[in-house]
Amino acid sequence: MSQSTLFWNFFKQIEGKLQHRGTTFRKIFEHIDCFSGPVMIVETGCARLKGNWVGDGCSTVLFDKYVNARNDGSSVTTVDLSPQAVKVCKTLVSDKVKIVQSDSVLFLHNFVKEAQIKEICVPLFYLDSFDLDWIYWQPSAIHHLKELTSIHGFLKPETMVVVDDCMQDADFVITEGKVSFRGEPKPGGKGRLVAEYAEVVGANLEFSAYHAGWTGFNTP
After folding, report:
1. What's the CATH code of the domain at 66?
2. Beta strand pairing status for 168-175 and 178-187?
3. pLDDT tens per residue across span 52-76
């Protein structure tokens, strides 16, 4: 039985509005539901516009709804470089969400030091901090790889790392009007370099759609 029945009732109403993120958000919350509370969800890039379910996903709002439904001391910590985004986010969520204005890489680096000392349970790191240019994707992808580097030593095998805006990339050729793919589609966008690293170290790709999510970065 889910620890957060009230949340799931809410999520069923909102899932369709999430469109291309709906199915993977469901998998994310199913994953967190497997952990006994209290837990902390850590997010980079906070909600910055009310009701923007399709555009940004309003992940901070969803996480806030979730920890409130658990009602077991669980919480959310989110970080954003933009003072304006932080200001807006504070109007959208409850006091169970800690909102920090900072560079996300630096914040995560310092966060894991404290989390290790306090033995904080973090089932999910949700990385979505650097706006993506789908043509010139490299700066955002590099930033998200830096975020992973900041938390890597803290990750447990069961910890899920999710990157937003990872629409799949694939190589293909067109011959006489027929499309032939060269290899399987892989996560692109913000998570492209995270995906390449994850593949090399043998992390488990749990899903790849508009979100990409992995566990097992530090499997013994």
Report:
1. 3.40.50.150
2. antiparallel
3. 998 889 999 999 999 999 999 999 9
